[in-house]
Every structure is written in C-alpha cells, then in structure tokens.
Amino acid sequence: MTSPLPERAGRRCHNVLNPLHSTHYFSPDLGREMAAIGLGNERGAYFATRAAAMGAVGAGTVTATFYNFRHELVAEHVPGVWRTASPDAVLAARTRAVDATLRRLLGDELIASEVVAEAAELALRAAEACTRTARPLYAAHADLPVPGEPHLALWHAATLLREHRGDGHLAVLLAADLDPVEALVSHTATGKGMAPRWALGTRGWSREDWEAAANRLRERGLLDAKGELTDAGTALRQSVEADTDRLDLAPYTHLGAAGVERLTELAKGLLITALGNGAFPEGMIGKD
C-alpha cells in the first residue's frame, strides 16, 4: 500500500524543482542563443522562449497564459518574434541554452552522475500523472519529446511539473479575484514574491499600476496602510497556495511519498550547487 503524502510534500518538491527549471531565464547562455537567431531583445526573447511550445501564437494567448504581464508589453513583441525566428528555432536555441546553463552551474561531473539520472527518472515518473485539461502551457510542453540526456530530461520534467502547477495556480488566482497586478502585489507582500523593482521591470506595469492595485487590496481589507498583509490577506494567500496544492496533487500522489521525498532531496542538492554558482541575481526576492 502506498503511504499517504505528508502535508505540502508536493509544494516542497516544486519549490526545489521549479528554480532548476528557471535558471535558464537568468542565464547569459539564453541571451546568447536567442541573439544568435535574431532575438536580441530580452523581453521578446523571454516571451518567445516560454511560448514557443504553443506554436506561433498571438499576444492575446501569451497574455492569457502568462497572466501577470501587461498586455501592451506582450504586444510589443508578439507575434513579431515569430517573423524573426520560428517556434522550432526558438525551442532548439532554448535547449542549447539550458544545456550550457546546467553544465556551467552544476559541472560536467555532476551532470554525468547517477544523482541527475535518478532525479530525471523520478521527475518524469511524477509527470506521467499530469493532465492536459485546462492547462495550456503544460499541454503544449507535454507534446514535446523527452530529451535523451538525463540533465535535459530532468529539466524537461521540471518544466512539465512547473507549468502544470502554474496553469492550476492561475485558475486559483482568478477564482480569488486577484487580477494580474494584485496577484503580484499580494505575493510580494508575503516576502516570497519578486521585489517590486523586479516585478515592475519585467512585467511592464508602472509604479502607478502597482499603487492602484495596492489600494484595491486595502479596500478589500487584504493590505494594511504600510503595505503588509492583514490577517485576511494572509489567509487569502494561504488559501491560494492550498488550492494550488490540491490542483497539483496528482503527479506527487502518483510518484508516492518515498519517491517525492527522494526527488526533493536530490533536487535540493542540485539547487544548492546551482545557487552556489550564481544561478540567480541578488535582490530578486523580497518586499523592497
């Protein structure tokens, strides 16, 4: 009989797998590979990189599936990016960037180790239980082939698990009546979201948009005058995470408690190595 999952075990696993997926977004290797196919603009390259699995979609689809980006920013780059580089070319460049990034952050010895191979096997097994229904970014990535090399297979599986959880999370945000900027502001107020300067610098919103969203949250009793979450705000954010966990339970239940614990352990070790080698810029997370 399979042991029941400990509370939040899936979330803990996600919290170490998701950063491994995200390393390429902050990597000079991605910028280099995208520039080589004509996508030298950082924002345009980001939209193309993440959306390419869906094909040559328009700005509306990207805004809908990414959720917290200003549509006008998206429309500056999409669908124009596809006139410069096809989705297939972007996906190939992304794979080259991920390969280079992981080799640089983890080292060739760790890349070739049983640690990475076992983590890839476990993550792929978990992803077997992900479902496509109402999960467009996950479904698009699930149609892509699994890479043969274990470190790339691990990254692919982490991507599937990330987008599966992410698609469910957006449904929960919508049900919680948190619009894109309100979602950012309230997440930042937890201390676990992007610092405002990072959110504003990458998502296309203005400081005025941020303050207007904060005022709306205050009117709902979710933020106090200092911008901190009230008890009601804390409860709402906790319910958002709990509902996201519930919608994302299937892959971790499928893997089982022992498998989830082992995958979390392996991914945490890999992440610690990546962080030690400068995977992410300083000051990205926080309230200031």
Helix/strand layout:
Elements lengths: L8 H14 L5 H9 L5 H10 L7 H8 L4 H7 L2 H5 L2 H20 L1 H4 L2 H14 L8 H7 L7 H26 L4 H10 L6 H8 L3 H13 L11 H17 L1 H7 L1 H20 L12
Report on the structure:
The protein has 288 residues and is mainly alpha-helical. Helix content is 69%, strand content 0%. It is built from 17 helices and no strands. The protein has helices at 9-22, 28-36, 42-51, 59-66, 71-77, 80-84, 87-106, 108-111, 114-127, 136-142, 150-175, 180-189, 196-203, 207-219, 231-247, 249-255, 257-276. The longest helix is centred in the middle third of the chain and has 26 residues, at 150-175. The protein is globular. The model has no long low-confidence stretch (mean pLDDT 96).
SSE topology string: HHHHHHHHHHHHHHHHH
Shape: globular
Q: Helix proportion of residues, in percent? A: 55-70%
Briefly note the structural class of the backbone. Answer: mainly alpha
How would you state the average pLDDT, rounded? 96
Quick overview:
With 288 residues, the chain is mostly helical. It has helices at 9-22, 28-36, 42-51, 59-66, 71-77, 80-84, 87-106, 108-111, 114-127, 136-142, 150-175, 180-189, 196-203, 207-219, 231-247, 249-255, 257-276.
Structure characteristics:
0% strand, 288 residues, 69% helix
